[in-house]
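As a warm-up, study this chain.
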Amino acid sequence: MNERAKYKLIGFIMMFCSSSLMGGIGAFTRFIDAPGDFVSFWRNFAGLIALTIIFLFIGGFKKVKATRFSGMMLLSGIFLGLLSGLYCLSTQYTTLANASFLIYTGPIYSTILAAIFLKEKIDWRGILCIIAVVVGMLFIVGIVTPEGLTLDLDPTYTFGNAIAFASGVAYGLYLFFSRYREDCDSNVRSWWNFLFASLAILVLLLWHNFCLQPLSYTEKVNGVTQIDAAGQIITHPWNLFTMPLDSWLWLIAAALITGFGAFYLLTHATKRLKAGELAAISYQETIMASLLGLCLFGETMTAFQLIGGALIVIGGVSQIVFTTSAANKEVDDAAVDGEVALAAQVRASSMRTRMEWIRSWLLWPTVPRKLPTPTIGTIPTQTTAKSPDFAEGLAGEVRARPSAYALAKWVFLGGKAPAFKE
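Now compare it with the structure written out below.
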């Protein structure tokens, strides 16, 4: 497998992990006594807080300032917020099946837009993969059942269906605009995405509360939504300051896992994969949601849903095989291969450097020792660290190894390597 194929494979892995993490939001919200759009806000705001803290540790804001800001970065962040915020809002005004179906049309829009405006080619195999996963999605969310189509077009759901449709459009536009500015560092892009997504959902949250209806949450017992005698879902007025502690804990976990983790990986994946490739993997989210419902809440899966899950897996795996195989056979492109090779070289070099420093730290005595003159300014190796000259402490600088905290921070967060200080 050449570097281009590896580059693509890593993108598929990131997209798979991202969609799998996003599939867990339904399970988390069953234990959170808060409106869905408030949960959506925290999924992005927690990512902004986490990435800001990491940037403060590693000096990441220098790269943010050095990166040219553009409208595409603004739009991708706004639509990231709208796709989740509008979806949560739509579930209160239409059926869950309608809302799920309409938001999952998003990857189809992005594939079409990318083919028109970005000239991203998609062959007949890619089209078949997308058809397979879309049909699988229709089965697994319950739009297609043995009894026929369940898409409810009742006029009472018109407003909710419109919002759900808008969430699908926002999803597609997010994936589409994310394909621009591939020169931008993915960590920087993630920070901007989280910032503008949080602001977009905050505006949506205020509009919902003051223009539509006061914020409320559904009553749940052991994760099961409660229904009254008339068959209506039981809801209660929501207050930020009276939210139970356990709901806050579940919210924080959901925000970090299905928000920060999922959206961060999604930003990295959109840089590596074309829109059609992203679409073929994005529906993995529905499988994860169904599996969590099965394992945690004892929900059953019908034969149609199992077939749908199989179609999604087959379509996704086939897309990975087709893309990586094609990447192995393509004629070298100097610009693309140079970028991919450089990225691979930097990753490999960075990993080797970290391993060498970890080994040096373990070999270095806990008390300050003299470093032999010929090796001053270099990373001490196993040979120099155990050499007689070193052991005897010949003329040279007296160095002490950095703290374990400093070493761990550099290994995991990057930045400037810790020095063996005097």
